[in-house]
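Hi all, long-time lurker, first post. I run a small reading group and we've been trying to get comfortable going from sequence to structure in the token notation. Rather than ask abstract questions, I figured I'd post a concrete chain and ask someone more experienced to write out its structure so we can walk through it together at our next meeting. Sequence below, copied exactly:
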Amino acid sequence: MPTFMRKIAVITRCGAMFRAEKLNELGLGDNRHSYILSLCRNPGISQDALSKKLFINKSNVTRTLATLEKLGYVWREQSAEDKRVTLVYPTQKAVDTLPKIRAVLKEWREFLTEGFTEEEIAVLDESLSRLASRVAVYAEMSEEVLNDEALNDRETGTAGKETDNK
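-- Answer (accepted) --
Happy to help. Here is the structure in token form:
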């Protein structure tokens, strides 16, 4: 019998297939729609903050934003306050695409919950929210560990060097 984590993974993969089928014509396969949704809610967010918000590593966010920029969905600019920070904004094309994205997400949600009562949906939503909160705690702890390792590497002069732990 599959574990509940396996079931979540299957739901996630099938949801990605569904969204790809519905959104590929817009160039928004591979979860790119989540960037559009987040950027429209948070115009001018930094790439780093977007990475944290979406739980996607920075290099993947940079690559995906480059693709979305080529497709005309986003534009980026260097922060006036901190030249190391890149701010990201949705274009009008992204804003105009929101109704289609939301309709596809609603269609998938309705398909998944067909036959569920409102009470069952509320219980499921609460349970998944609790799991998501735990994931956020893990992500925060992981980032702290990575930041501590990077700081330690800088302090010991080993940043960017491979160490031999034999």
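A couple of things your group might point at:
Residues 158-166 have pLDDT under 50 and may be disordered.
The beta strands are 45-46, 74-78, 86-90.
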